[in-house]
Give the backbone structure.
Amino acid sequence: MIFDLDGVLIDSEQVWDEVRQSFAAAHGGTWTPTATRDMQGMSTPEWAEYLVSAVGVRLPAAEVSAGVIAAMEKAYAAHLPVIPGAVDAVRAVASRFPVAIASSAPAVLIRVFLDVTGLPVPVAVSSEECAAGKPSPDVYLLAASRLGVSPASCYAVEDSTNGLKAALAAGMTVLAVPNPHFPPAAEVLAQVRVLGSVSELPDALA
């Protein structure tokens, strides 16, 4: 079982959005109507470059990523927005199957989540390690490889359009917990099994 992080285990998509918008405004950028959805699933280098090229932030991409990630760490230190039922769901699944996280979040933020929750997740992969972020399947394929299992034998849990596309492209069985703030595209949801919340996951696998 491979979990996405943002939007599945922590209610962080809005935090990312607020932090990026604030950072962009402070550094000469102009937010666009599609910016939020465009960046969902992008790796750190990809969204940093997007903020420069598409939003107009007047800093090098490396400074953009460092500044945004530092702001996210500060936000998480104040409050880590774990989704109700997520920790129990992961523990229940981990008692029966190997589990991993495959996330677009930078590795430092994945580690914050695991340190705070103490979850037994032996494999945690950031798309920073891959050639491309979601909707590319790279991060899911790498997570399956590190678990030592074939992608076709894996379940993936996702919340966003790009995340769902990535897991589908990896050849996994995909379960969706749609993000209420940024709902996935209907045509993508039609290709997967939809759950009402992550708490339903252990029963769905029974």
The longest strand covers residues 100-103.
